[in-house]
Amino acid sequence: MIRILAISHQNERLTDIPITEIKNTDCKWYWIDFNRPTEIEIEELSKTLQFHPLAIEDCIHVLQRPKLDFYEKNTFFVSHSLHRFTLEKEEINMFLGEGYIVTFHLSELGEINDVWNRLMVTETIENWDPSLVLYHIIDKLVDNYFPVVYQLEDTLNEIEDNSNEKSMEELLDELFDTRHNLLTLRHTVIPMRDLVYRIVNSHRLDLLQHRIEYFHDIHDHLLRLTEKIDASRELTADIRDSYLSLNSHQTNKVMRILTVITTIFMPLTFIAGIYGMNFSHMPELTYRYGYFVIQAIMIVIGIGMFVWFKKKGWFR
């Protein structure tokens, strides 16, 4: 679907203009949105709008890394939208030129719809231009990264507190899943940060110079996101090391107790082994109270070793 919104010199909204007539329309500026376009509609990028073939190729072949390319008549932007729950990335391609902006995306995107609907109802239409549309789209994309970061931070806090008393295996599985999601998020945020950094430091984007402070604000948000993601990744490493250390400590504790028990039974097993031998001439075997004496000796040895190990602190 292709939808077109043109703003006349009288600041009126025009939406019934065919794409083939848009360049001949006397308007102040226009926005063309390619929303899940068909093959025939994609051909309009080259046939009617006459964009560079390399830019059109980048639109068709997803997922491109967020980037900024300069062409003779326009500037081409690649940015990413992030699904809040699945963390799947969706590519948004934008062409910014003198008096127009063109957006291209193969999926329905809430960020584009939000800006489009806002532009359709705003009373200050005279303040809008293609650069402001570009700013609002990128700003929406970045704003939607924050809930994902906050959600992952909450997950880490739950793992650290373990209020649900989950097992060590479950906690580690959740921890590694969260760490993987943080890595996925980082692979989205950092390229977007680099893209916005190029925007605010480029001397070739004359169309954006009067709004460059807006993009500085977006860049600050991306820096905050990067810091939060890196801090969360460090926290996952700390939690992982703590759990592994705790698990190792518990294992050592169990092994120590088992070692103590084995050590206590070693002399008892030795005594039982001696009197379990089938020799004919063993004086103790004919002694009337021999059994009770040996049992008493074994009990004394067992209790004595237990008390000694306890004083040494091996049962703590």
UniProtKB/TrEMBL annotation:
<comment type="function">
    <text>Mediates influx of magnesium ions.</text>
</comment>
<keyword id="KW-0406">Ion transport</keyword>
<dbReference type="InterPro" id="IPR002523">
    <property type="entry name" value="MgTranspt_CorA/ZnTranspt_ZntB"/>
</dbReference>
<dbReference type="Pfam" id="PF01544">
    <property type="entry name" value="CorA"/>
</dbReference>
<keyword id="KW-0813">Transport</keyword>
<dbReference type="InterPro" id="IPR004488">
    <property type="entry name" value="Mg/Co-transport_prot_CorA"/>
</dbReference>
<keyword id="KW-0460">Magnesium</keyword>
<dbReference type="InterPro" id="IPR045863">
    <property type="entry name" value="CorA_TM1_TM2"/>
</dbReference>
<protein>
    <recommendedName>
        <fullName>Magnesium transport protein CorA</fullName>
    </recommendedName>
</protein>
<comment type="similarity">
    <text>Belongs to the CorA metal ion transporter (MIT) (TC 1.A.35) family.</text>
</comment>
<feature type="transmembrane region" description="Helical">
    <location>
        <begin position="257"/>
        <end position="277"/>
    </location>
</feature>
<keyword id="KW-0472">Membrane</keyword>
<keyword id="KW-1003">Cell membrane</keyword>
<keyword id="KW-0812">Transmembrane</keyword>
<dbReference type="InterPro" id="IPR045861">
    <property type="entry name" value="CorA_cytoplasmic_dom"/>
</dbReference>
<feature type="transmembrane region" description="Helical">
    <location>
        <begin position="289"/>
        <end position="309"/>
    </location>
</feature>
<keyword id="KW-1133">Transmembrane helix</keyword>
